[in-house]
Amino acid sequence: MPHPWTPISGGLTAPAGFLAAGTTAGLKASGKPDLALLLAPEGAVCAGTFTTSLVRAACVDLCAQRLAASGGHARAVLTNSGQANACTGARGLADSLTVTAAVAERLNLAPEEVLICSTGVIGVPIPMHTLVAGLDPLVAALSPEGGAAAAQAILTTDLIDKQIALEANLGGRTVRIGGMAKGSGMIHPAMATMLGTLTCDAGVPADVWQAMVSRAVDRSFNAITVDGDTSTNDTFLAFAAGELLGPEHFDALEAGLTAVSQHLAKAIARDGEGATCLLEVQVEGAADEAGARAIARTVCGSSLVKCAVHGRDPNWGRIVAAAGRAGVLFDPNAVALWLGDHQLMAAGQPLAFDRAAASAYLRERAAGAYLQDDTVQIRLQMGAGPATGVAWGCDLSDQYVRINADYTT
Fold first, then answer.
1. Lowest-confidence segment of 254-258, 279-283, 322-326, 371-375 by average pLDDT
2. Of 17, 78, 163, 175, which has the fewest CB atoms closer than 10 Å, so is most exposed?
3. Phi and psi at residue 6, in whole multiples of 5°?
C-alpha cells in the first residue's frame, strides 16, 4: 500500500460515528446470534455492488433501487441470517419493505434510508413476528463497540467471524476504515453466500466513492471462489461519512479500502466449507489486469486443482489446463509455473523438480489452517505483458460434500 494503513481493533464500528449491534432474535434453530444492525452518521453516502444473478432475493433489488433513487445515500442496514428470503415470490419484497419500515420508525429515519440484507436457506421466508419482536432490543443495543456482535450475527455456516479495521493519517487527520463479511459456501461472486459491509469516517462524494468501491470489489470479492456457485443474495455495502477528504488523498483512501476488502475476501476463501488451506494464485505477464484476474480465478475454481491441493499432490498439469480455458489469450510456449518456491515449468516445458518436497510444501500449508502460513501459493508467468492479477480460493475436501449434502435435512 502506498500509505501506512495500520490494523486497529473495533471492526465495523472503529470509524467515528458508526453504531452497530447484533442480537439473537430466534431466527435460527441453533439459537445463535441472527440479527445485526448498522447505523451510519447523518449525511453518509453508501456504495453498493450486488449479485448479477437473474435469480436474486428481493432485498438485493430493494437495496440497489434505493441507492439509485437517493443518489447513493443511506443511513442503516439490517441483516438477518437464517433465511435468504430468496425465491419467495411477492412475499419476499413485502417482508423486506415491512422490516425496513419498522427499523426506520425506531431510528426516526425515512424507510428509503434503510437497507436490508438476508442470508440463509433459499426459498425460506423470514419469520416476520420473530424478526420484528427482535428489533427493539437490537436498536437498544446499538453501540460504538457493537461491531464484533454484528459480525457474529450475520454468520451461517461460517466457522469464524470476519472483521477488520485499519487507520492512517491522511492530510493531518486520522482516517479509519472498518468492515465485516460472512461467507463460507456458495462463493463465486459475480458483481459468496457472501455479505460484506464497510464503514469509513472520511467524507467522499457519492460518485467517487462508488467508483472506488467497485474497483476494490473487483480486486477482492470478485477475485475469490470456493465452489463456483454464485449466491442469490451477494451484497457489499460501503458507507462513508465525515469531514470531506481532499482529492489528493483519494488514492490513499482507495488503497485502504482495497486492503480491507481483500482481507475480508481472503477470510471468506480461507473459511471455505471443509477447507484446510487458503489457495492464492498470482498471475504475471498478462496483457491486462482483467485477463490476469480471470486466469487466476479460473485456476482457483478448478475442482481438479482444488482436489490436488487437498490431496497434497503437485499435479501441475491441472493448473496450466485450467489457465488455458479461462478465455484469455496467451502463448502456451511462454508459460512458467511455481508452486511455492518450487518451479515446475519454464517456457511452456516441464522442469525436473523434487516431487516429495513439493508435496511436503502442500502438507505444511494445510497444517497451518486459519493461521497466516496456511496459504498455498501458485505463481504463473504468462509472458512479457505488463499486467498482474491475483485470486484466492481453497482446497476441496470430502467435508464440503457432507456439509452440502445434508444442508436442509
1. 371-375
2. 17
3. -120, 145
The pairing of beta strand 375-381 with beta strand 278-286: parallel
Burial of 84 (0-12, 13-18, 19+ CB in 10 A): buried
Residue 89 burial by CB count (10 A; 0-12/13-18/19+): exposed, middle or buried? Answer: exposed
320-368 per-position pLDDT tens digit = 999 999 999 999 999 999 999 999 999 999 999 999 999 999 998 876 6
**Is 17:40 a contact under the CB 8 Å cutoff?**
yes
Catalytic positions:
193
* Domains defined for the chain, CATH in brackets: 6-270 (3.60.70.12), 278-405 (3.10.20.340)
